[in-house]
Amino acid sequence: MKKLVLALEVVLGLIPFLPLLSDTIFKTNIHTSIMKMTLQWPLWLKMPIFLICVLLYLYFWYTIFKEIKNL
């Protein structure tokens, strides 16, 4: 069960890189279209979303290392 939780946490940690991976694999422009869309958003909306994403990403890797330490 612990290995399943660890695998799930690794997958969740990789989610922010999915647009880059799909661009690389399928030769699409998903990443640039996301960037163009979000550039139109006001700064007061972008900053909290950015901070939440960074904190969630750091939390996922913290839990992964914590689980590895407990194994």
UniProtKB/TrEMBL annotation:
Q: What is this protein called?
A: Ubiquitin
Lineage here is: Bacteria, Bacillati, Bacillota, Bacilli, Lactobacillales
Q: Which domain of life is it from?
A: Bacteria
| Keyword annotations of the record | Membrane, Transmembrane, Transmembrane helix
TM regions (residue ranges): 46-65
